[in-house]
# Entry
Amino acid sequence: MTLTVKIPIEEVRRRAESLGDWFHNLDLGGVKTAPNHFLHDYPATKFRGFAHVIPEDLTGKSVLDIGCNGGFYSLEMKRRGASRVLGIDSDDRYLAQARFAAEATGMDIEFRRLDVYDVAALGERFDLVIFMGVLYHLRHPLLALDLIHEHVAGDLLLFQSLQRGSADEYENQENYDFSEESHFDDHAYPKLHFVERYYAGDPTNWWIPNAACAEAMLRSAGFEVAEHPEREVYLCRRVTPPSLDGAVYPAKGVIKEALAR
# Structure
């Protein structure tokens, strides 16, 4: 997908190169930001597999892109007419790349340096929250989903996580007796694989779910799967979580109010 640029193409090429290695291989007026990407035209090739589950017209909608990286999804949501798009990331290099991509294409997108654990600081909910390719990089993945539900998700959540292990569905019983153990050995039972050191040479890969685990975590955090267009991707709706305890990490405002009592 080639994006129209508003600045001279030689300036696009020069500035894209000056921003270092890109993980998002954007096509800015014919200039590829990561021409030697090991996944080729990524994430555009990935997006083609599930683009149809996102409304083509997002006029009047707000979007939060968590872990926005070089800005591919933020740019696409703005291209679809979203009135407000906010991308957050904890990596300044990725934010610089995303800001440049927005500037080069003339798109009005805001980018902030913010960690997923601090989304309560935004103080607003969004019609669509994008949470793609982030979960397995987190030491506290379920906490992140809880916080997204509690503080920023207004309706839709677009979720993707790397998965390993069984891709089969698994139907949990409501309860198991303490003496029952065999279900834990079922290959499809929800499992979250812990990476103690490295996986694929990346020290930020911490927890990798199988398919049943990813879906169970979403349900537990209060997200109902509406569409499952490909193996790792889910479009969810925010619903009441099965447990009313909420995130174990409360909003900072709640802490201040408690201390004031």
Observations:
- The two ends are 55 Å apart (CA to CA).
- Helices lie at 9-18, 44-48, 72-79, 92-105, 141-152, 211-221, 252-260.
